[in-house]
Design goal:
The protein is mainly alpha-helical and 335 residues long. The chain has a domain of 78 residues: Tetratricopeptide repeat domain (Serine Threonine Protein Phosphatase 5, Tetratricopeptide repeat), CATH 1.25.40. The chain has twelve helices and no strands. Helix 7 packs antiparallel against helix 8. The C terminus is likely disordered. This is Outer membrane protein assembly factor BamD. InterPro entries: BamD (IPR017689), BamD-like (IPR039565), TPR-like_helical_dom_sf (IPR011990), TPR_rpt (IPR019734). Part of the Bam complex. One of its GO terms (biological process) is Gram-negative-bacterium-type cell outer membrane assembly.
């Protein structure tokens, strides 16, 4: 009976061939079934064609292609009258795609090169929206909220009469409410951990720095709770009185009123919960207040007259300005 001897060298060679074939099949599978698509590469054409192609891509929601079209235009036609518009529209494309850092970078580029452009107000506003869209929930760090407020305030400071100023103010109010919510979250944590001094500091900051937010009534009520736990009855009564006179119908005043009543700290100074406090009427003026000679009446906030159009939806970005004609020659600069 003959016994065949297996050559170890031939076995190793076969294993190597099998491994190589598997790797090749895997690589080909990545190319055939992979989910990552190569970014679109626009064909080189005239500046006008590239710009119109970018606008068409925007309208059909192909934002990556739109940004690429505008970028190719800027690289190949730096002296074209379409360059300024292409820079702005590329930033808008990145914004719609959700690539906010890229959008901010492109908008900063536009603002630096065209600070006096008719579209500068929109560029500042769109840049602020990029920060605004990245605001994290109150459980996380709020540095993005601060950056958003700074960018929105710059819109109001630079362009107080623009159509973006009022919406910027609305978003600033929402940012302030967000920051106040963060302070309340931290304050409640400190209160639960019986770190009363730290809790009071957080609640006082809400009352002093975020007076127009919806968190002030709760902050005052929490201060009543903490002061009662510390045995500081005078401070508890003062916080309760402030809460009652400013928010008599709030549920937080009902809670504070009940706690103070349990400690027998109520007095005639405390309004009844739910009862509105009305200030005495001032005597009617018989004459018009004097004004400076030749001075025009003071405009209302942000230059809007009573009964003017309602502010835009705070969740919806306005449509970017799209011009059919190229930008003026003085706006076409070398990149």
């Amino acid at each position: 009976m003959s016994v065949s001897v297996i050559n170890p060298l031939s076995v190793r060679c076969r294993i190597r061939h099998l491994v190589s074939a598997s790797l090749l099949l895997g690589l080909s599978g990545c190319g055939l079934f992979g989910h990552e698509k190569a970014p679109p590469v626009p064909k080189l054409a005239s500046a006008e064609t590239l710009y119109n192609n970018g606008i068409d891509a925007l309208r059909t929601r192909r934002y990556t292609l739109a940004a690429a079209e505008f970028e190719v235009l800027q690289q190949n036609y730096p002296y074209s009258g379409y360059v300024a518009n292409a820079q702005l529209m590329e930033g808008y494309s990145y914004y719609l795609k959700g690539k906010y850092p890229e959008a901010v970078q492109q908008l900063n580029r536009f603002i630096g090169l065209h600070p006096t452009s008719a579209d500068a107000a929109y560029a500042y506003y769109l840049r602020a929206l990029c920060f605004y869209e990245q605001i994290a929930d109150v459980q996380r760090d709020q540095q993005g909220t601060v950056e958003s407020m700074d960018a929105l305030e710059e819109v109001i400071t630079r362009f107080p009469q623009s159509k973006y100023a009022r919406d910027a103010q609305l978003k600033i109010d929402l940012c302030r409410d967000h920051l106040a919510g963060k302070e309340m979250l931290v304050g409640r944590y400190y209160q639960q951990e019986r770190n009363y001094e730290a809790a009071i500091n957080r609640y006082q900051r809400v009352v002093e720095d975020f007076q127009t937010t919806n968190h002030v009534p709760e902050a005052l009520e929490r201060m009543v709770e903490v002061y009662l736990d510390l045995g500081l009855t005078d401070q508890a009564r003062k916080s309760g009185i402030v809460l009652g006179y400013n928010y008599p119908g709030s549920k937080w005043y009902r809670f504070a009123y009940s706690n103070l009543k349990r400690y027998k700290l109520l007095s005639d100074n405390f309004p009844v919960p739910g009862k509105l406090i009305t200030a005495p009427k001032a005597p009617a003026a018989t004459t018009t207040p004097p004004t400076a000679a030749g001075a025009a009446p003071a405009p209302s906030a942000l230059g809007q007259q009573p009964g003017a159009a309602q502010p835009m939806d705070i969740q919806k970005a306005p449509v970017a300005p799209v011009k059919a004609e190229p930008a003026p020659p003085d706006q076409a600069r070398v990149l």
